[in-house]
Amino acid sequence: MGETLVRRVQDGDREAFETLIVEHHRRLFVLAHGILRDPHAAEDATQQAFIDIWRKIGSLRQPAAFEPWSYKLLVRVCYREAKRQRATTHALQPHDLDVASGFDPIGAIVDRDRLERAFVRLSVDQRTVVAMRYLLDMTPEHIADTLDISRPTVYSRLRRSLTAMRAALEADEREGAPTLDEREATG
What global pTM score does this model have? Predict the structure, then answer.
């Protein structure tokens, strides 16, 4: 159905486009949020990407390549947005937490905050490959094809990203942020 749907959109079918939006909104939003780290900016970027998709879908030669093509358009929008404003973290909302029996919500907030601070220190290029790899579960080969970069570049960005995040987390620990073990010992 995917290729047929894309062809219908290429022919100007607005209902098919609405279906396409419904089918792809979540994945595009997840990637945008992974890159921009702000839900409002991510939603704006996703909407702009859909506008770009509608305007440029006629240039898509292979309807089967819609998904990576749509990611490329979204990543370009996110890069423009990231250049316009510095990366900011979003405030955690209570509904963001998964509360289960024995779950330490304060510890989860501290851990999530530390991870978020480490993540936003990454460059936009690094956040993009990390989001594609770990939020969308894309293979490095798929990421390389989508971003028009080499596989070694993907692997390099992933490695550097994880190293940078690890270093940021370790720096936080040295500065006195409580670790999970310390919270468990006092709690």
Answer: 0.73
